[in-house]
Write a structure and sequence with these properties.
The structure holds 4 protein chains of 4 kinds. Chain B is an all-alpha fold. Chain B folds into 2 domains: about 240 residues, no CATH class; about 220 residues, no CATH class. Chain B contains 19 helices and 2 strands. Chain C is built from 8 helices and no strands. In chain C, helix 1 packs antiparallel against helix 2. The radius of gyration of chain C is 21 Å and the shape is globular. Classes of the chains: A mainly alpha, B mainly alpha, C mainly alpha, D mainly alpha.
């Protein structure tokens, strides 16, 4: 199977086509097409994975040859790809099964399944690609599908806006990736990861160029993986359907950025600068987003910022030098975060609200959702022995062993905050007294089609950390590693710190929200400025609005002004000066000295004429530009060329 | 001397003369339809001839013509453009009650002949004559709706500015003649390689850059374009935005890579600067437009800026990228204008608000328009992506990373105004309810353009391979 | 000063002076007549440069065709303002205004200045060879051999101009013959 | 023989006068005349270069003949367009023709 692994990405595309073409005939049966396709892909991924344990495969053919530019088409299956294939297909399958219940009766049911299939196909293609060219192609397709998925309910203005925001914000990063790709190509004459890495390893490329290229590639990861400062799209993207969010924010889109850095690790390790920036941005994002998550009251927003924060964690792991840790956390996170999103979807489905302050006491009404959500929380908070604990521990270990201790403490602080805000979310949602009785009365557990995926994912969230634990001799690290892999030796200090941070967070959450030992209101009151800053997400959106959006508008206005007024304005200015001159030195102009009456009339008319001419549309202005351009061009070329 | 290689041009000329007679002597009711059929027949035969004439590469008629791969590319492209525009024109001329619908097609064919000549010129004289044949036809086409004051205004502005720019271009050509004693591009190139770059040669080059830069509407010589595009009849606007523009790029490639190859450093720098301001200003101004034709005018200015990046690269890879991008741009833009024509034939005002609710009134046109916009933005698996990708590559290869960066930022900005249309189509309730009646030939044009956009996005390799074979040096 | 140079000076003055009057003449019909005079001056210069055939063509095309066409168009126009030709303000009155005085003057003068400055230092590889005594014959020969393609295209340019002029100006009634 | 430079001075001045007229006048017909002056300047250049640079080759004169042909065609089409415009705007005053802007 491993020899034909590319089929895994083709199957969802076929599903997409079938849904696209026969949407009307199939009605809600389209779901089975998508689920069946993803099921087959999952099966093939398992086969591929088992074969990949034996060895890696890479196949490549020239697709287009343009002189000395060879654009390849090819795929590879190495441990990284094998793991990613499994993660993507599992999460996507669970999401699609779950959606049968969640999206039931939706106006654009078929379109939803079509896009989910396309989305999965793009991500699968991305992890299978063995070269930058196809990676960029899949990357762009994924960007487009994310736009469609996020603005699925485009009647809602915020959904339409969020889709656009995601599309444009990530595109800024994409520009970096594209340029990085081209730059690497220009210097190595190859798009293929392995060839590029080899050439760089052999020292054929200048260090400075490698650094710039690596940072450009990283920019792509920053955009897609919602790292600071391009994180703003992700929380808004919650306007999309919740299972879609689970797909985007757990296994596909956002994971792509982390995957990219891992895939291009050969470029990053060649230059210390690049990795340092990856770690710094990752660590900062992790802490930054975690603080925001502590004050969000919308359950999906909490999870959204938590996603941003955890992605930062993965980047931190990669940047701190542990390839294995970053990918390990990517995997465990995919399971527990999709579980949490689907769980929150189940809650939203039940109470028709996303506000945690309108929930409460739901554990009795939604027992399955409650228990699975709790497992997800434990995994995310890093409570042993759930999966998140093991992967986080690896990352903290890597940060601890890195030359920058600040990274380690950033990670620890984030871990504490994570435990705190998740505890808060669980307590607000499932414990205490119902705060909205009307909603509480109507709440009921979701149908099996939704709860079964929850249970499966909960199982995975609980146990998927074990392959990376000492119990299984760090099997994951033996399998997924960069080069020869050099695992940092375990440190009981790190483990103790990690566990205490998590427990501290949980305790704080319980103390404030469970037993009200500390009054929430009082805390908010005494820390009001800080609270406001967090509540407004550090005003990043406002800042962007002011700088970029208004800036562009301003620039466009200036340009439009130039186009419209400057030429004519200049003309009029000179005209005005000339007129003043002719007025003052009236002796030279018989029409002015003909008499005060005539003079005043002439000036008034001329002024009116000038005002009229503030509008463009004058051929003469165009002609003046043409010939003035000639004169300026002639002079410039002599200055430059001479 | 063999006339066989230019048989397509001869066929087209014969078609023009025949159709002129038809216009004069045919007095039936359906002149418009008859002339369209004749035009399409003439262009089809031209294309067929082109396909079956044995390939020929070299100089013809004492170096007046250069028939090479690039010439073949454009000689094939321009009649295809003509087919699209002819299909778009019939219903439009009928709806707008144009007084002499028949002559429209004759003039269109003459313009196409001029464009084909420009692309296969080997001499300044033939370039000039081809350019003027195209330009004079274009002035007439712009003013074709005599009763529409906007059309007349477009014509007069286009004419006056075009004639002045031709004067500038011609002055530069006369200087090159004086400096080298030759008008043949190959001879000029040879002499310039000995002469180097004295000040006057550079000055003459500036005249050529500005004269031709005007024709492709490079900022700051673009000001005529939005006025001419908005005022001209919509099928003519479609033609302007692809035909004469592509032909002017063909002439630019001819003059600068064939004739002024020794000055590549100087002119690539000039085009880099022009490309920078052209794309930036075009995109930023497009954000502000209310009229869809005017918006598309600025969009096409911006695209001319992108294409100039290939010139700025100054390498054969840049030329390949330009040709591929032109191909993608031409068909995508024709598709867009077919939709605009279909809508304008019913609504009549060409405002952005006319697009409201198009997804309900004509889902096919709306979806096609979205694909065309994606292609213009440069999304993968549409024709526009590979063109942009190659342009990026050519720029980076020539060390113009900054230009590639600006281009990438620009294509992000352009999402803004395309999105306005998409939002109007899908998210805003329609102003006029009811399905939009669309003429069959317009649907055909949209479909063909859509197919080209998508097929070129998926299977660009054969086309690219041929383009490379065409432009590879030596 | 030899006679040739004197003739050159006089013809140049006529050409440029008439050209200047084209710009400054108040009535458009006067401007058209000055334009004809300027073209005659250019034809004279062509003669001095041994381009006798071209001088004849110049007289035929410019003076005989273009100027006549302009004058006829002005005189026969049904638009009062064109026929009267008094639409524009006087030249001297506008010379001090910006759009119609200072800026055009500055641009045109700068253009002439820069070009002349560059000419001053140009190194023309002039060939001091006696001119072809029979230019008409050699032009005719070249026109139908070397320049056959441009010749044909030029005829198409005239064709399109003819059709275009008819389409744009023909009255509606004409169609219903 | 008259120095080439003198010829070039005359042609340059004629060119500049044409440019000046085109920028100065509001009358489209006068602008058309100015364009004809520019083309004449180019022809003078071509003939002058032909006389001094390639005396045995009639290339320059032939180029000039083509320019004249095109000039005639351009003038005819230009006049036709001006007449269409003049019917609408009542005059050949080009600065009134400004529906299309911004």
């Amino acid at each position: 199977m491993i020899e034909q692994a590319w089929i895994i990405a083709i199957i969802p595309i076929v599903a997409w086509l079938i849904i696209f073409l026969f949407a009307k005939a199939l009605k809600e049966k389209v779901a089975y097409v998508g689920i069946l396709a993803m099921g087959i892909s999952l099966l093939l991924s398992v086969l591929t994975f088992s074969e990949a344990l034996g060895g890696t495969v890479e196949k490549s053919f020239p697709w287009a040859v343009v002189g000395d530019i060879k654009i390849p088409v090819g795929f590879q299956v190495d441990p990284l790809t094998a793991v990613m294939l499994l993660v993507i297909t599992i999460v996507s399958l669970m999401v699609q099964i779950y959606s049968v219940g969640y999206m039931h009766g939706d106006v654009r049911y078929a379109k939803y399944y079509a896009i989910v299939s396309l989305f999965s196909a793009a991500m699968l293609g991305l992890v299978l690609a063995n070269n930058f060219f196809w990676l960029v192609l899949s990357w762009e397709i994924m960007g487009l599908s994310s736009y469609l998925l996020i603005s699925h309910w485009y009647e809602k203005p915020e959904a339409a806006a969020a889709g656009m925001k995601a599309f444009i914000t990530t595109r800024i990063g994409d520009i970096g990736l594209l340029l990085g790709t081209i730059m690497l190509f220009v210097y190595t004459h190859s798009f293929e990861f392995n060839v590029i890495a080899e050439k760089i390893h052999a020292g054929e490329i200048n260090q400075g160029i490698v650094t710039v290229a690596a940072l450009l590639v990283f920019a792509g990861g920053v955009g897609k993986s919602a790292q600071f400062p391009l994180h703003v799209w992700l929380p808004d993207a919650m306007a999309g359907p919740t299972p879609g969010s689970a797909l985007i924010h757990a296994a596909t889109m956002v994971a792509a950025g982390v995957y990219l850095v891992a895939r291009a690790y050969g470029i990053f390790v060649a230059t210390p600068y690049a990795l340092f920036w990856v770690a710094l941005i990752g660590g900062f994002t992790a802490l930054f987003a975690a603080t925001i998550a502590t004050v969000m009251t919308d359950i999906k927003k909490v999870l959204a910022y938590s996603t941003v924060s955890q992605l930062g964690y993965m980047m931190l792991g990669l940047g701190a030098g542990s390839y294995t840790a970053g990918i390990f956390h990517l995997m465990t996170h995919a399971f527990f975060k999709s579980l949490l999103f689907l769980g929150s979807g189940s809650v939203i489905h039940a109470v028709h609200s996303q506000e945690m302050h309108e929930m409460g006491g739901l554990r009795k009404k939604l027992p399955i959702t409650y228990w699975t959500f709790l497992i997800g929380t434990a995994a995310l908070a890093g409570i042993p022995p759930f999966s998140g604990f093991w992967s986080k521990d690896e990352i903290l270990l890597a940060a601890y062993r890195s030359p920058y201790p600040v990274l380690f403490w950033m990670g620890v602080a984030t871990a504490g905050l994570t435990a705190y805000y998740m505890t808060r979310a669980v307590i607000l949602t499932f414990f205490g007294q119902p705060r909205d009785h009307h909603k509480y009365e109507h709440a009921h557990e979701s149908p099996p089609v939704m709860t079964v995926p929850l249970v499966i994912l909960a199982t995975l969230a609980a146990v998927s950390g074990l392959p990376g634990s000492p119990f299984l001799h760090n099997a994951f690290g033996e399998f997924v590693k960069f080069g020869h892999g050099h695992e940092a030796e375990p440190s009981s200090f790190v483990m103790i710190i990690a566990i205490s941070a998590a427990l501290l967070g949980v305790l704080a959450g319980v103390a404030i929200y469970g037993y009200k030992v500390i009054s929430r209101e009082k805390a908010i009151r005494s820390w009001r400025p800080l609270y406001l800053v967090l509540k407004n997400k550090y005003y990043v959106d406002e800042f962007y609005m002011a700088i970029f959006v208004r800036g562009t508008v301003l620039l466009a206005e200036i340009v439009g002004f130039f186009d419209r007024y400057i030429i004519d304005g200049l003309v009029n200015l000179v005209g005005w000066l000339g007129m003043q001159l002719s007025f003052l030195s009236g002796l030279f102009d018989k029409y002015v000295i003909d008499g005060m009456v005539n003079g005043v009339a002439a000036i008034t008319m001329a002024l009116g004429n000038s005002a009229r001419r503030l509008q463009t549309g004058f051929v003469q202005s165009y002609a003046i530009t043409l010939f003035a351009g000639v004169v300026i061009g002639l002079i410039l070329i002599q200055l430059i060329g001479g | 001397m063999s006339y066989l290689p230019i048989l397509p041009e001869i066929v087209l000329t014969a078609a023009i003369l025949f159709l002129t007679l038809v216009v004069v002597f045919y007095q039936g009711e359906n002149r418009n339809g008859v002339m369209m059929t004749g035009t399409i027949f003439g262009l089809s035969v031209t294309l067929l001839t082109l396909a079956f004439v044995p390939p020929f590469a070299g100089y013809l008629f004492s170096g007046m013509l250069t028939l090479d791969g690039m010439a073949f590319f454009f000689r094939w492209l321009f009649p295809a453009v003509g087919l699209f525009v002819a299909f778009m024109a019939r219903e439009f001329l009928e709806v707008k009650k144009a007084e002499n619908p028949g002559e429209f097609y004759v003039i269109l064919l003459l313009a196409i002949l001029g464009m084909m000549l420009m692309a296969s010129s080997g001499d300044l004289i033939t370039i000039y004559l081809g350019l003027e044949l195209t330009s004079i036809s274009s002035y007439i086409l712009a003013g074709y709706l005599r009763e529409d004051p906007k059309s007349g205004e477009a014509a007069i502005k286009y004419f006056l500015m075009g004639a002045l720019a031709s004067g500038v271009l011609l002055f530069g050509m006369s200087l090159f003649y004086g400096l080298t004693g030759a008008t043949n591009l190959v001879s000029i190139s040879g002499i310039l390689h000995q002469v180097g770059a004295p000040p006057l040669v550079l000055a003459a080059m500036v005249f050529l850059i500005i004269g031709l830069g005007f024709k492709v509407a490079a900022v700051p010589f673009h000001m005529w374009a939005p006025d001419a595009y908005e005022g001209a009849p919509t099928p003519v606007t479609a033609f302007f935005s692809v035909g004469p523009k592509a032909a002017a790029f063909a002439a630019i490639i001819r003059v600068f890579t064939d004739g002024l190859s020794s000055l590549v450093w100087e002119w690539s720098l000039a085009f880099a600067v022009l490309a920078l301001i052209t794309m930036t200003l075009g995109n930023l101004t497009a954000l502000w437009q209310k009229n869809v034709k005017r918006m598309l005018a600025y969009s096409s200015i911006a695209h001319a800026g992108y294409i100039m990046v290939g010139l700025a690269a100054g390498t054969w890879q840049g030329t390949v990228a330009m040709l591929l991008y032109l191909l993608a741009y031409v068909f995508t833009n024709l598709g867009i204008f077919a939709v605009v024509t279909a809508l304008g034939n019913r609504e009549g005002k060409d405002e952005l608000t006319d697009f409201t609710g198009l997804s309900q009134r004509s889902p096919y046109l709306a979806a096609a328009l979205v694909v065309f916009f994606l292609s213009l933005i440069g999304i993968p698996f549409t024709a526009g992506f590979f063109g942009k990708f190659l342009l990026f590559g050519a720029a980076v290869q020539s060390g113009l990373v900054w230009l590639a960066l600006v281009m990438a930022v620009n294509s992000a900005i352009s999402v803004g105004y395309y999105y306005t249309v998409v939002r109007n189509m899908y998210l805003v309730a329609p102003k006029n309810k009811g399905a939009l009646p669309v003429a069959g030939e317009l649907k055909l044009v949209v479909t063909v353009a859509l197919l080209v956009t998508l097929i070129l996005g998926l299977f660009f390799e054969p086309v690219l391979g041929r383009l490379v074979a065409f432009t590879l040096p030596g | 000063m030899n006679l040739q140079l004197l003739a050159f000076m006089i013809l140049s003055l006529v050409t440029l002076g008439a050209a200047f009057k084209v710009i400054t003449a108040r009535f458009i019909t006067h401007a058209a007549l000055y334009l004809a005079l300027s073209f005659v001056g250019v034809a004279g210069l062509f003669l001095l440069l041994n381009a006798d055939f071209l001088a004849a063509v110049q007289l035929l095309v410019y003076v005989g065709a273009i100027t006549t066409m302009l004058i006829f168009a002005v005189m026969l126009s049904q638009v009062e303002e064109i026929r009267q030709g008094a639409a524009e303000e006087g030249f001297w009155r506008r010379i001090l205004s910006a759009r119609f005085g200072v800026i055009p003057l500055a641009v045109a003068a700068a253009l002439a200045g820069v070009i002349l400055y560059l000419y001053r230092f140009a190194n023309w590889k002039a060939v001091p060879v006696a001119p072809d005594p029979n230019t008409t014959r050699s032009i005719g020969q070249a026109m139908f051999t070397t320049y056959l393609i441009p010749f044909e295209v030029a005829s198409l340019v005239l064709l399109v101009a003819m059709i275009g002029a008819i389409v744009l100006t023909m009255k509606k009634e004409d169609r219903s013959r | 023989m008259i120095p080439l430079f003198y010829v070039l001075v005359v042609s340059t001045l004629l060119f500049a006068l044409g440019v000046y007229g085109a920028l100065l006048s509001t009358n489209a017909i006068r602008i058309l005349m100015s364009i004809e002056m520019i083309l004449n300047a180019v022809n003078l250049n071509l003939v002058g270069f032909g006389r001094y640079i390639t005396p045995s080759d009639p290339r320059g004169q032939i180029f000039a003949i083509f320019v004249m042909t095109v000039a005639a065609a351009e003038a005819a089409v230009g006049l036709a367009i001006i007449l269409v415009i003049a019917r609408r705007y009542g005059a050949a005053a080009i600065d009134r023709v400004r529906m299309l802007k911004g």
